[in-house]
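lol forgot to send this yesterday, sorry. struct tokens for the thing we talked abt
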């Protein structure tokens, strides 16, 4: 039990956990931005394809 207490005290001052949380938040923010960009660009691309498709006439 004493070894566990000493280990916890030694690692309590470490900022490793805080850095991990910061990196996790950064990755989550990047993922949200990427999803929003893909959704927006996907909608715009879909609109463009529908416009092209409607302007193409089928030859008899």
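and heres what i got for the seq, position by position
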């Amino acid at each position: 039990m004493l070894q566990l207490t000493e280990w916890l005290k030694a690692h309590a001052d470490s900022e490793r956990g805080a850095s991990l949380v910061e990196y996790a938040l950064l990755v989550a923010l990047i993922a949200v931005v990427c999803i929003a960009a893909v959704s927006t660009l996907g909608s715009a691309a879909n609109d463009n394809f529908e416009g092209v498709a409607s302007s193409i006439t089928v030859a008899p």
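The chain has a mean pLDDT of 80. anyway ping me if u want another try
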